[in-house]
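Researcher: We're teaching a course module on how sequence relates to structure. For the next exercise, students receive a sequence and then see the predicted structure as tokens, so they can try to spot secondary structure elements on their own. Here is the exercise chain.
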Amino acid sequence: MQLWLPLRLLVNSNLFISICALCMVWVTYLQLELSIVWWPLPVFVFFATLFIYNWHRLLSMDKRAQYGQPGMHHWILAHRRSAIIPIASSALVMAIGFWYLNTRIQLCLALLGILAMAYAVPVLRWRQGLIKLRDIGIFKPFLLASVWTGATALLPMLELNAPLSREWLLLLAQRWFFMAALCIPFDVKDMAYDRATMHSPTLPIRLGLAKTKAIAVVLLAGYLFIAFVRIGCQPALLGYALSFVYVLFLLLRNKTTDPEHYYTFWLDGAMILQLVGVGGYFLKIVW
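Model: And here is the predicted structure for the students to work with:
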């Protein structure tokens, strides 16, 4: 079943995944009992996500349209000229916002930016040629989870200019486990493309669908367990449990024949659901 046209446009233009990134930044603000703000970091993360995802899609659209499922990459292939507009506008907003961020965030962004670029551009020497970081198949979802954790959890923490604490480490671990559980199913979506282009197999290619899903479920359980260690039986735990149950349902019914929007809308939408689930409790504290 196709998504409603406005939702397809949101997903295909990468606005939806950028909104998801914004929501996860706000979740971190609420977890740290900070007021939700728009500028500068949340807006920067939104437009950085929009820039990187559109840039990655443009770099790989020809091969992905050939091997992947019809959908986003075919849409970008048909609108490649108009895709330059969000890339250019995002780069402009990022350049402005960067100078309003503190030095610690700027240094962390430089590292995250290098990882994001190396994910799509061949920079690592492998045997007789250069490969991209995403070509190291088995590590791909965990690298993505690390970048997402850095962008949506570590950066808001660095705004506080506070020393590292046990609470920060648990929050970072909780976010990483959640993002890793979300990233692994995307390797199922990309199996045809990855078989044709990867230098080493991804988890579903190496282990099969059942074992890959089991790993994702274990990571998701780790996310909820760390949330319990952090906050105990506070009402906010129900919010984390809501996103846990939602993602668990999607993981257990995941099949290799699922349409692209199963991942890019329903699975990614778990990030928005987490903001809704935990936001009500934390907003009472912040306000």
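Model: If you want an answer key for the exercise: The chain has a mean pLDDT of 83. Residues 41-67 form the longest helix (27 residues).
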